[in-house]
Design brief:
The protein is α+β, with helices and mostly antiparallel strands. The protein has 2 domains: 97 residues, 2-Layer Sandwich (Phosphorylase Kinase, domain 1); 219 residues, Aminoglycoside 3'-phosphotransferase, Chain: A, domain 2 (Alpha-Beta Complex). The protein has a 5-stranded antiparallel sheet with strand order 1-2-3-5-4, with helices on both faces. Strands 6-9 form a two-stranded antiparallel sheet. Strand 2 and strand 3 form a beta hairpin. Helix 4 packs across helix 9 and helix 10 runs antiparallel to helix 12. The protein is globular.
């Protein structure tokens, strides 16, 4: 698959005209990670920036909404949630083949392995504690105060999400996955009662979507807000815990089978308890439902990655590997349901 490139002769003058202080674009290097929206490191005389754009080709409805990403990053600028600085949104799809935005480049550490093999136990504990703090802070953001009251529809979040991802899965289906068909029936039939909680949710909250300080266990910026919306906070929490249940897979690594206590990483029970303490909650009923939903949703997302790969529009050269995980994740969701 050819690596997508930016036309510097088009992008440079445009950004110079629209971003205060931007001067002399010299290069645009595509980041290797990421499955959805191609992301580039821009180096200019005035410094470094990050450009994030829609992928080429036909896009599924509501997918790759970089304008929503820009809006939420801009809104969170003065909150306890660390984000990059939002510079400019370009809605002209013709300029470089899709909408795009430019934000600050936060020069820190991104950890791809949740076991944090290059850190010692105290640093691991600090990093996971910071992830927990940031997630709780995100869910405590007063959406009215930051101008995001209309960023999504409050109430019935899981019902709407199940409907959305069922439709997205069917739109990108390449072969029958029996477990997905079973989940499409089971999940709406087993919805917990709506408890009225509504908050800003990230939608893809995980370790490698956070830039940490070069030497401290402090988050500099949460990245990749494409799936953010107003929704139920337990979706973010369960999604992160779901990922940490995974084994040391070659494509998506988790903490399954590792001695978390020895590593200095909190257990799932401890992590959830810390989150509840920070948000003044007693506990989380129906936890297995939220975990099963998370497996289902990620399976649906990766099925879309697979479809884009087969169509030749995937952002990553590992898209086929990611997409092949969809049946495995769906079966994991069934296992969670059956264990319950």
């Amino acid at each position: 698959m050819a690596v997508e490139q930016l036309d510097l002769d088009v992008v440079g003058p445009y950004l110079q005209a629209h971003i205060d202080g931007f001067d002399g674009l010299k290069s645009a290097e595509k980041f290797a990670g990421g499955q959805s929206n191609p992301t580039f490191l821009l180096t200019a005389n005035s410094g470094q920036y990050v450009l994030r754009k829609q992928p080429p080709g036909k896009l599924l409805k509501s997918a790759h909404a970089v304008d929503r990403e820009f809006r939420v990053i801009e809104a969170l600028a003065d909150t306890d949630v660390p984000v990059a600085r939002a510079y400019h949104l370009c809605t002209d799809r013709d300029l470089i083949g899709g909408m795009f935005y430019v934000m600050s480049y936060e020069n820190g550490r991104i950890f791809w392995d949740p076991a944090l093999p290059d850190c010692d136990a105290p640093e691991r504990a600090a990093i996971y504690n910071e992830m927990n703090r940031v997630l709780a802070a995100l869910h405590d953001v007063a959406v009215d105060a930051v101008g995001l009251a209309d960023y999504g529809r409050p109430g019935n979040y899981f019902e709407r999400q199940i409907s959305r991802w069922s439709a997205q899965y069917k739109a990108s289906e390449t072969e029958e996955i029996a477990a997905m068909d079973q989940l499409i029936v089971w999940l709406p039939a087993n919805l917990p009662a709506d408890d009225g909680q509504a908050s800003l949710v990230h939608g893809d909250y995980r370790l490698d979507n956070i830039v940490f300080h070069p030497t401290e266990g402090r988050a500099l910026a949460v990245l990749d807000w494409e799936l953010s919306t107003l929704g139920h906070p337990y979706a973010d929490l369960a999604y992160q815990c779901m990922q940490l249940r995974m084994g040391q897979d070659a494509v998506i690594s988790g903490l399954g089978g590792l001695d978390r206590q020895k590593l200095g990483i909190p257990s799932e029970q401890e992590y959830v308890a810390d989150y509840c303490r920070r948000r003044g909650l007693e506990d989380i009923p129906n936890w297995n439902f939220y975990i099963a939903f998370s497996f289902f949703r990620l399976a649906a997302i990766l099925q879309g990655v697979l479809k884009r790969a087969l169509d030749g529009n995937a952002s990553s050269d590992r898209a086929l590997e990611y997409g092949a995980l969809a049946p495995k994740l769906a079966n994991e969701a069934i296992n969670v349901i059956e264990r319950e």
